[in-house]
Amino acid sequence: MKSKEELIRLIANQASVKEKQAANVLTLLEEGNTIPFIARYRKEMTGSLDEVQIRTISEKWTYLDNLEKRKEEVLRIIEEQGKLTPELRKEIVQATKLQMVEDLYRPYKQKRRTKATVAKEKGLEPLAEWAIAGPVSGSPLKEAAHYIDSEKGVESAEEALVGARDIIAEIIADNPAFRKWIRDDTYKHGMIKSVVKDEEKDEKNIFEMYYDYEEAAGKIVPHRILALNRGEKEGVLRVSVKADVDRILGYIERQVIKGKTVCEDLLKEAIEDGYKRLIQPSIEREIRNELTDKAEDQAIHIFSENLRNLLLQPPLKGKMVLGVDPAYRTGCKFAVVDQTGKMLEIGVVYPHPPVSKRKEATEKILRILKEYEIELVAIGNGTASRETEQFIVDTLKGQTKDIYYLIVNEAGASVYSASDIAREEFPSLQVEERSAVSIARRLQDPLAELVKIDPKSVGVGQYQHDVSEKKLNESLSFVVETAVNQVGVNVNTASPSLLQYVAGLSKTVAQNIVKKREEEGAFTDRKELKAIPRLGAKTYEQAIGFLRVPDGAEPLDRTAIHPENYAAVRSLLKSQGLSTDDLGSEKLRKALAHVDVRTLSVELGVGEITLQDILDSLMRPARDPRDELSAPLLKKDVLKLEDLKAGMELQGTVRNVVDFGAFVDIGVKQAGLVHISKLKNSYVKHPMDVVAVGDVVTVWVEKVDVPKERIALTMIAPNS
Description:
The chain is α/β, with parallel strands linked by helices. It is built from 29 helices and 15 strands. The strands form four sheets. A five-stranded mixed β-sheet has the order 6-5-4-7-8, sandwiched between helices. The chain has a five-stranded mixed β-barrel with strand order 11-12-13-15-14.
């Protein structure tokens, strides 16, 4: 078996990192360190690898470890059967993929009763071996006549030959070299074909383009695989893999029939039967599974990237916000939240039919705008969103003070409103009222609000319902965890939903932190967290750097500096004639701007990379990485679909990025699509290389289809 050193070499090669980096990451993970902690506070050991690289190393180690365990098991089983040759052992030991190990193991696997095992029970194996040897003289029928035995159920020579053929077919089907060649060839030259099975089940004609469709297996793009799988699952399509059968049979014949033989016809029959009955169905399954795995990985990757960008959207801090959840019949629910996200008032207005109390609604909203000095109105993008937008714009027009509004993507707000988390937070509120609070808070701190929602429900995916639930959840949880830890968390305002994503903290510990805060008041020091039930020394070490105490007794507690480095930081400040009270000041910035990092690193016994991070934190103690991104687009007037004209230049916000382009919100009911070919003047491999969720972009209207509510946009300037 491969040694740990060999496996590390392999991982380093696959993950494109140095062997030392891979080895150190695995050591740190074995010691129980979390990925965010390793990425942020152990940069010296990892050579500044980020969270994704560390996760890749961890996943590859798990795969290779499982592969080695499977090899051991397979070798043991074959050895117990007394069939393990030195050549076979070598092949199994050298295999780099699980599929190769399974192919080699296949002939020795305990099978359920097959045609071949029945034929072997009838004593026909020697006849099959005689035929495979390729005799140049004699007659198959005469040879088969020796095997007629009524007791064993062989009544004629023809029957004996059929049994021999079944044995040969299985030998061919179990040959690992043949299977590998056929799998590779089918992947290279095969076609994915789909035909309609039941058109009636496709009410909206979603799968129309696949009713008679064919594409090369090696070239088909991921989103088409998932679309075909969905069509098949819903009973609309029949999907298959078409291989070049003649080419494959020709290859096997050349391998099996080495020269002229009296058994040529028998062998050809066995080859055809072995391929069509035994090899083809399982190879088709394997290829479809492989394509689905790749497509799932791509869909999950896109979803994860979109989610990351959505979570890291800049917060609109320090604003009084009015959140509105639009509706017709039940009225528009509204919620006022202050700068900290605290709900101050909740209510409902009826500006739309069938109730239509517009005058009363206007008066109520005007009172709220004035009383609470509202700076921003957040309107959900659900039912009646446009009408509500028009109502808000009309209401704002007479105001002396500039009040802006935003359409907020409310995907998942209803999921949150009906959840246990929302019930705990607002037990006395109705579902729609909770939704209005969530819409307002999404502006103030998207991350803190969106972590309360199941990531699958935030509306930035592509085919998320068609991928492996387990794989998707793992990936999305990792994205949320990474985002939360990159931003850091105020321990005195964070909800349990947010805290449980902090490195090392479990749901129980997160709840214990909030409980202690509610019972005893705000934390004044990071050290106080050591007293939290179930928060042991290792958990404290992992989490504490990501937990901030903004107004505590220790100024360093509001930074991303880990307490393990506090002593070194104090020595550093002292050497420059500074103290912790000078954090973020101009005096400190000037003093630290020109320090010699290399010399200081030796003096303080702190790595250079870590020291650089410490210096950055001292200069910008409350830095939020999200502040460096473009702020959301604020609006003062309304735009209708009918107002759009070809060539019109607009600003918009990217809402979703998919394989074939990006959906951009330009302030009308429907998001417009910028096709991948319209993102820029040159070739674009993937839309993500150009845009991300939350980006504010300039677009031009290309085409508007009002009946279908479709808008085609371009990001290429008309005259470029």
